[in-house]
Amino acid sequence: MESRVLTGATIRGLALPPKLAVRLTGNCSLPTVRLSGKLTDAGNLIWGRQLRPAILLEPSPPIAVSSVTKRENFRLAAASSPAESGDSAGGAKVGFLEKYPALVTGFFFFMWYFLNVIFNIINKKIYNYFPYPYFVSVIHLFVGVVYCLASWTVGLPKRAPIDSNLLKLLIPVAVCHAIGHITSNVSFAAVAVSFTHTVKALEPFFNAAASQFILGQQIPFTLWLSLAPVVIGVSMASMTELSFNWTGFISAMISNISFTYRSIYSKKAMTDMDSTNLYAYISIIALIVCIPPAIIFEGPQLIKHGFNDAIAKVGLVKFISDLFWVGMFYHLYNQLATNTLERVAPLTHAVGNVLKRVFVIGFSILAFGNKISLQTGIGTSIAIAGVAIYSFIKAKMEEEKRQMKAA
């Protein structure tokens, strides 16, 4: 084969210095040449490798080489071998999570709803044979705290450090979380699950009132107007709810107020800590807050006959397993809710919260066969529709604010 000397020639647009000229014949193959990066930006010529981020030129066809020393042959062969087993395009393989983000987000929503529905069903079934909401509230948090401590032990996730200043900020949040959690469970134990969630649909109204009169934020008239159907719907549902009693209604209202203040204190306690660690610390503090009232209000009854009655009705194994699983589902659905809402936009967040309440109310009616009057059904539907309208308007307002700040 004809041999020739390449001096100052180019390989795919890359000039070879004259001193590197070699005599080429048909004896051996030169490895694929790739250009990574711009030469003006200190780009690298790599034999058979890619640096990221990369702007790759097409690989050159093999060029025959002779008059190369054994040392040069060994160096080139060693450098070229990894490339031959790599991806032909030199790009990174795309994982399933990156390839189908919408599908993954949908799965998160499904698990959030599924765990929430299962929690509400098991929770209500426990109250049917063990009507002690203060103690059950403690179990919810206790199981979650044990789960968090076990996760920290294995480093999934790694425990974030906490100091006295951060602790002072988190205590009010955790106290409101504890009060809201206990009163929610008191309401669940006293009335139908569907009715408690209908009353809790008023939470946006309390949030708007707190923003206006406590934080001093101006709430637009359209936002207030959207809350009118919520108030009307809850009032209609309450008047004809077959399981209505004042303990359940007032407890659900206190829960709304407590969670509203939790939101206020949460804004003041903004930290760089990830949501998983933050929720773990709040759960630990809330558990400490919930234990004293459980002992005071239910302790004597539990020791006297509460535990014995429950064990006599369902057996020790089922009683313990029910308490364990209701605690696990409580913690996991709250954690999944946080992780899910971090992945979506405010409008999707709003839709998700409304649909979750619809799912819980619907499945609780099916699971327990609760009879509801026509007026209760209409009132519940109006309340949920009002929450949806409010959530859409508020989400759009937040999106506009964010766009204005970005601009």
TrEMBL record:
InterPro entries: EmrE-like (IPR037185), Sugar_P_trans_dom (IPR004853), Tpt_PEP_transl (IPR004696), TPT_transporter (IPR050186). The chain crosses the membrane at residues 102-122, 134-157, 169-193, 213-234, 246-266, 278-298, 310-333, 372-393. It is found in: Plastid, Chloroplast membrane. Keywords: Chloroplast, Membrane, Plastid, Pyruvate, Transit peptide, Transmembrane, Transmembrane helix, Transport. It comes from the Eukaryota. The keyword Secreted does not apply. One of its GO terms (cellular component) is chloroplast membrane. The keyword Plastid applies. It holds the Pfam family TPT. Its main location: plastid. Residues 104-391 form the Sugar phosphate transporter domain. It is a multi-pass membrane protein. NCBIfam families: tpt. This is Glucose-6-phosphate/phosphate and phosphoenolpyruvate/phosphate antiporter. It comes from Handroanthus impetiginosus.
